[in-house]
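Let us practice reading a record.
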Amino acid sequence: MVTMEPISIGEHTLVGVEVKLPKTTLLTISTARGYIMCGALDVGLLNERLGDRKIIAGRAVGVKTLKELLEAPLESVTSEAAALGIRPGMAGHEALLMML
C-alpha cells in the first residue's frame, strides 16, 4: 500500500510518502528541490553513480513513521545537500527547510 500525505513545516506544505512492503516500510518527505528518506536510501550510489544528477537528499536510519523521519537526525547526506549546508546530525525538518 502507498500512502501520500501533506506534511506541514511552518508555512510550507511538503509531500510525505509511505510505502508498505513485506517486512519493511519506505518513507520519504520531499520538497521541489530535494528529499529525506529512511535508511533504504543509498547515499553512496547517489554520490558516486548518479553524481551528475546533483541530487539533494538526506538519510535517517531507524525511523518507522513520517513524524519520526521529520525529527530524526540525518545519518548521511549527498554531496549536493552538503553544499547547501545540510549536515549529518541535523534534524530532518531542518534539512527540508534548507531544501526549499
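A brief commentary: The helical segments are 43-48, 66-71, 79-83, 92-98.
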